[in-house]
UniProtKB/TrEMBL annotation:
This is Phytochrome sensor protein. The lineage of its organism: Bacteria, Bacillati, Actinomycetota, Actinomycetes, Geodermatophilales. It comes from the Bacteria. Gene3D superfamilies: 3.30.450.40. InterPro entries: GAF-like_dom_sf.
């Protein structure tokens, strides 16, 4: 009686033979030069199907590097809001702690394939950085071709990819094992956990380790959910007050405190929003930093200190502290809410709650950067879905009416019989005439 081989395992019988590697490379060469899918016995079905999808997505096997879509403050804010952030200690304990000794890299991605955390062996991380396997880069299958985290997200299953099974040649010196992570309550896809390294990473042992880590992570998420539910009903008295700052589509922010709403001045709107953004990343700001973020020209530190003193009297010392200036009370912004919805993949809700640009009249450099980051984050997430309904809603945002990339994507995904296609095509034609489309 023969034992069935797990189709998701890359190397169930130990290290690959030279003959197998030659067959894989020959099959890959025929695919990329003649678009000829390999025979059933040449590559595993999961790899053959992934190669076909990569080819259909237009991935160039010798093309450029996967794009880095999240950088610096935007990456930090996005990670802080992501539902996998609270369980990162579990991943580090089970995988990262031994990664350097085991010559491995551990990567955690979001549901769109963007790398949020890349940790482990320093030497390997430096080498992997040459192919943009770094935090903030997108390794979804339709962008980077066949790879374990991208393919795991595409097929919603744990999978291993060995060496020459990768679609892009620059990735073929590597092997990887990855598994998707789901919200244990809603079932929503949250991202993937990946281990990357040499041939040993494609072993059954590492595959089992990655799947066990995912099980532990989902168990921890379930426990955290139950803990949140338990705390609510049994809490004596009212829950701790949480201030809310509304900045989307508003020239002046509205701060809602337990005592009621406050309409802030333009300058106080800017300062409080920038402090809320810093607090979301666990940081504060000194007066010089805030002056640079508020004033486009010379940093008027004295003026900023005076404004902050007035703001502190207005909102109370229990919310705003100095040395450095930071929020000690919880201030949740509507911009942060939209980021969180995007991080969870709830894009319809994100579009619903996106009431407009962050403080649209503000010219403060820090506010302008945050405004552009949020719109860019929402735009990229919706474009990635290729969903006509979401793209239609995105295209109707006033700030994207002249965005040729959005309208081009919408034109590509609308079916020929759609009643909206004529209007979309006409608008795209106007953008072409205006020179906004190459």
């Amino acid at each position: 009686m023969t034992t069935a081989v797990n189709p998701w395992l890359a190397l169930p019988d130990g290290p690959p033979s030279a003959a197998r590697t030659r067959r894989l490379r020959a099959a890959h060469e025929r695919l990329v030069t003649a678009s000829a899918l390999p025979a059933d016995d040449a590559v595993r079905p999961v790899v053959r199907d992934s190669w076909r999808r990569s080819l259909g997505s237009g991935v160039d096997p010798d093309g450029g590097l996967p794009p880095v879509e999240l950088l610096d403050a935007e990456l930090r804010a996005y990670r802080a809001a992501h539902p996998l952030a609270p369980v990162l200690p579990v991943i580090r304990r089970l995988l990262v702690q031994d990664a350097e000794a085991d010559r491995m890299i551990v990567a955690v991605s979001d549901a769109a394939g963007r790398m949020l955390w890349v940790e482990g062996d320093r030497g390997l991380r430096a080498r992997a950085g040459a192919m943009n396997f770094v935090e903030g880069a997108r390794w979804s299958e339709e962008v980077a071709g066949t790879n374990a985290p991208g393919t795991a997200l595409a097929v919603d299953a744990a999978v291993q990819i060995y060496g020459s099974e990768h679609f892009r040649r620059s990735v073929q010196p590597w092997s990887c094992s990855a598994a998707p992570v789901h919200d244990p309550v809603t079932g929503a896809l949250l991202g993937a956990i990946d281990v990357t390294g040499g041939d040993h990473v494609a072993s059954p042992h590492v595959f089992t380790l990655v799947r066990a880590t995912v099980a532990a992570v989902e168990s921890e998420l379930r426990w955290l959910h139950r803990e949140r539910l338990a705390v609510g009903p049994v809490a004596a008295g009212p829950a701790p007050a949480e201030a809310r700052l509304e900045v989307l589509g508003r020239e002046r922010a509205r701060l809602t405190l337990p005592g009621g709403p406050l309409e802030l001045s333009v300058r106080h709107s800017e300062l409080l929003f920038l402090l809320a953004e810093a607090a979301a990343a666990g940081q504060g700001r000194d007066a010089a930093q805030l002056a640079a973020e508020v004033h486009a020209g010379a940093a008027a530190t004295v003026t900023v200190r005076a404004e902050l003193s007035r703001l502190r009297r207005l909102v109370g010392g229990d919310l705003l502290e100095s040395r450095p200036y930071r929020l000690v009370g919880r201030v949740r912004t509507d911009a942060e809410q939209v980021r969180g919805l995007v991080a969870r993949g709830e894009l319809a809700a994100a579009l619903e709650h996106y009431a407009g640009p962050v403080l649209p009249g503000s010219q403060a450099p820090g506010v302008r950067q945050a405004r552009d980051r949020l719109l860019g984050l929402l735009r990229r997430a919706v474009l990635t879905t290729r969903r006509p309904d979401l793209l239609l809603r995105l295209a109707q945002l006033p700030e994207l009416r002249e965005d040729a990339g959005v309208w081009q994507a919408l034109c590509e995904v609308l079916p020929a019989g759609s009643p909206r296609r004529a209007a979309v095509t006409a608008h795209l034609h106007r953008l072409r005439l205006a020179g906004r489309v190459r």
